Amino acid sequence: MNYFKNIKKGIRIKDTFNYFIIIVMLAVPLLMSTFGNLPRSSAGLLAQMAYSILLAVSLNLVVGFLGELSLGHAGFMCVGAYIGCYIAKELYNVMDSKLLVLIISMLIGGLVAAVFGFIIGLPALRLKGDYLAIVTLAFGEIVRTIFKNLPTFGAALGLSTKKYGKDLYIVALVTVLISLFLIQNIIRSKHGRAITAIRDNEIAAKAMGINITYYKLFVFVFAAFFAGMAGVIYGSYVTPVVYSFFSFNYSIEILVMVVLGGMGNITGSIISAVFITYLNFQLQTQLSGDLAALKYLVYAIILIVVVIFNNAPALKSVRERFSIANKLREKRLKNPEKQYSDTNRWDVVTTKIRMDEILTTDVKQNDPFKPDKPQKGGK
User: Fold this and answer.
1) Domains held by the chain: number
2) Domain CATH number, residue 186
3) What is the pLDDT of residue 81?
4) What are the backbone angles phi and psi of residue 62, rounded to the nearest 5°?
5) Strand-pair partners of 159
6) Exposed / middle / buried, residue 72 (Cβ in 10 Å: 0-12, 13-18, 19+)
7) CA distance 376 to 379
């Protein structure tokens, strides 16, 4: 019971805002489809946003909270997409419920991707910095090359899948909601504090008794699981599943979502994933042929602007001055009753002992003219 009490205490206003974004994305199209006609392109865009959010938030666990650079996140998505969609294709022959088939295939795709994350992470996470980035990059390229040459999965032609139609975005967004609940409560738990401690100072965390290898592997496997589920959602939306989609460029695109939203910022990852997906959708609509490659130029310009905006002293002061968070903080300072107490933040038991009570409790005034008690053996 204490675990569930801690989960309830761990939900903050920021977390509720994250749920609100997904619920709005889910409710508005439902109302449109009920009282009007929801275009197929809009339903497909929502499905893209759903798996983009899963990818961005899960990569943020590795890059933002753990502090390790991974460039092979599209590789785990590739594993989940191929395995999950192949399982779904086989289950269609024995099961009638499309919803049940989709749920089972997502779980299996995520679990297989998590196994790959464990296999790769066990030796790779002993490396740091650029070396880890190179290993994860190589993993992503190796995985898609393997699926390219396997006849069981369609080889170079790709794996043909069953399309779910407009209802796919509902399942996808509900999956995102459940995933966000799990991820945010892990971040708020003692495991999340251990992970951020490793990011801030690995030597100090190890000295405090935190199992570095365990938590690094835990985050890596956890992120791979959600990337695999995102791959199944992608494979259920696009047919056939082709190896060329899961390239290094797509791993960089996921990393752009994380950097744009902010390292260690779940809300930022959600917003940036929605923004990048919508931008990509519009660029693909407007640009064709050789001009389609210009979208990477747009990503580069966005990254440069974000980095300058975050680090330039003049812009930083302007941002802090007009920041909504700072205005709310100033409002709380003006009204002390609305400030968050330490009890709400850290489960600390408060006391009503005043400072004068502390100074007068169990304190004996020494009389300089009164002789001390004789020592043992004295008179």
Assistant:
1) 1
2) 1.10.3470
3) 92
4) -80, -50
5) 241
6) buried
7) 9
